[in-house]
Structure formats: C-alpha cells, structure tokens
C-alpha cells in the first residue's frame, strides 16, 4: 500500500506549501495529509529548512481517512460505533508505529554508516601518524648508529688518548 512519489519544492518553503504541492500532484486533500520526517509530524507553519530537510529525502505522508462532515455518524448501535472507532484507531496506530519503526531502522543504519566512516577515518589517521612516528624512530636510530660509528672510528685513530668519551 506504500508507494514512492517525487515532489519538488524549495528548501525554504513552508510545510503547508509542500502539502499544497501534494494536493496538486497526488490529489490528497490538505485536511487528510499528515507529513512525518525523522519520527516527527511536520507543522504547517514551519519551513522545511527548520526541520533540516534537504534534497532527496523521504518524507512519510499519512493520508488519514476522509471524514464526511455533512452526514452525522450512523447510530446503529453504540457498541458497533465504538468497535469501528477502535478498529480505525488501532489501524492508524499500527500504521504509524510500523512506519516510525522503519524510519528508526533507517536512522540507525545511517548512524552506523556514519560511525563506521568516522571509525575508518580515525584508523587512517592513526596509520599515518604511526608511519610518521616509525619514520622518525628510524631516522633517530640511524643518527645514533652514525654517531657511534664516528666515535669508534675516532678511538681507532687515537687508541692511547685519554678521551672522556667512553663507550
């Protein structure tokens, strides 16, 4: 029963403008539209930018059942009306809960992907820092070996001198 539709509006547009665009494209009346993004119902007077909605995001449209306001509700029996109302409420609740849990799974997956990418970035930084440290250690070791070699050569040239440098 779910399908994807593409609607394009400016990022600074208000939610009500988006609802009007949905009315034009999908013929869903304004009073039946409920827009949900990141588990929150969008308020008509706020802008899409205030919800941090960017290009190519998925906003859930819940089209509530049409209410015929010209006719009062049928009164066959009070129990039947209550059952119908509770069935409608349960269906609406289940639909909303399922959609919100799907959105939460998508958000967790996004968070995991972001954490994984930052983890990999940190590993790359650690590897590059480790390479630099290893290069510095090799250079220091080479300098120490060269210094020791010079001292040994100096001792070989002057074997009997009383040099304070003693290795």
Automatic annotation (TrEMBL):
GO terms for cellular component: BAT3 complex. GO terms for biological process: ERAD pathway. This is Ubiquitin-like domain-containing protein. One of its GO terms (molecular function) is polyubiquitin modification-dependent protein binding. Residues 1-68 form the Ubiquitin-like domain. The lineage of its organism: Eukaryota, Sar, Alveolata, Ciliophora, Intramacronucleata. PROSITE patterns: UBIQUITIN_1, UBIQUITIN_2. It comes from the Eukaryota.
